[in-house]
Amino acid sequence: MSIQLTLIGKPGCHLCDDAREAVERVVADFHSANPAAQVVVEEQNILDDEALRLKYSEEIPVILIDGKMHNYWRVDEERLMRALYAKTRD
User: Fold this and answer.
1) pLDDT at position 90, please?
2) 10-34 burial, b if ≥16 CB within 10 A, otherwise e?
3) pLDDT of the residue at 23
4) In order of start, what are the domains of the chain with their CATH numbers?
5) pTM listed for this prediction
6) How far from the centroid of its chain's Cα atoms is residue 36's Cα?
7) CB within 8 A of 20, min separation 6: which ones?
8) What Rg, from alpha-carbon coordinates, does the chain have?
9) DSSP tag of 48
């Protein structure tokens, strides 16, 4: 089982830094409880991709799970954990 988690943001964004730290905590806890499930975390920078900038510039940081919008602005760690667990049941 592999789950793709994408963090969309930009350098110098304090909310993006907070989101990165929250994602790291959640993924570490999730992996400890579910060693068979792999979460692949990818970061994308809106400054490097015009389409991302146009789509998400007012919402960063944005979290996508398997390409679908999960959250933006602030990461609710409990909600993110529930979403990861839900993916293991898909």
Assistant:
1) 72
2) beeeeebeebbebbeebbeebeeee
3) 98
4) 2-85 (3.40.30.10)
5) 0.93
6) 19
7) 7, 9, 43, 61
8) 13
9) G
